[in-house]
Amino acid sequence: MKTSISVEHVTVRYGDVVALDDASLEVAAGRVTGLIGMNGSGKSTLFKSIMGAVRPELGSVLIDGMAPAAARSSGRVAYVPQSEDVDWAFPISVRDVVMMGRYGRLGVTRRPRAADRAAVEQALARVELAELGDRQIGALSGGQKKRAFVARCIAQDSELLLLDEPFAGVDQRSEAMIVRLLRELAAAGRTVLVSTHDLHALPDLADEAALLLRRVLFHGSVEEALMPERLAHAFGLDARDARETGETL
Ligand SMILES: Nc1ncnc2c1ncn2[C@@H]1O[C@H](COP(=O)(O)OP(=O)(O)OP(=O)(O)O)[C@@H](O)[C@H]1O
């Protein structure tokens, strides 16, 4: 199987806090991989390492053999941020957010061409937001906001998609739509890495799962990842609590 992201023995520290400690993960193309871990387990830091936004103190990250910054500037990496990391008051329309996915392709004039506009309209249609394209991004529901960012990824047409907690504050219909789109993108050969607390969504969403607690404790089938003993270890619970966590999350 083709490996798309290779995280090798990565350690990231913020001052005294060790966010990742010798984390290693191989993420395959053509599959959806779920990244599971409790608050503060290092999921966002792992994404930032893959995007080249934080530099590991030790270890390395390669994307199709390229350094993260180079992969990102070549447009290979699309990212759906956590909602907290977005300035929803920014005066930008939904359509223009999706057009941002095309920026890497626009020439020096930065002027969208017909093909860029068509890609944006197609992406909006795929997430069923065609009618809301003119709306300010902050004037959407939680689920619609996420769908707008997924549309930005679709418009970007990148090999690699990273989604940080795409289901937080999202209605069921939007969640089901995002799951379906991610599976379609993986089936078309894209690499999809999704962090989520939503263990219930995992069997439908992901082909495989990795459990993170500063390092990758387990990476394999979703079924095995959801075994109570494994969840207990990752979430710092005893196995019975972990079973309940799996049932209630
Ligand atoms: N900029 C920062 N400065 C200092 N510490 C940080 C910084 N960013 C993250 N941390 C710390 O690093 C650890 C890992 O954080 P990270 O955001 O990667 O976890 P996470 O798994 O994404 O958490 P959550 O599920 O709550 O989003 C946490 O202890 C966090 O407090």
From TrEMBL:
It comes from the Bacteria. The keyword Nucleotide-binding applies. GO terms for molecular function: ATP binding. PROSITE patterns: ABC_TRANSPORTER_1, ABC_TRANSPORTER_2. Coiled coil: none annotated. Keywords: ATP-binding, Nucleotide-binding, Transport. Residues 5-239 form the ABC transporter domain. The keyword Transport applies. Belongs to the ABC transporter superfamily. This is Metal ABC transporter ATP-binding protein. It comes from Leucobacter manosquensis.
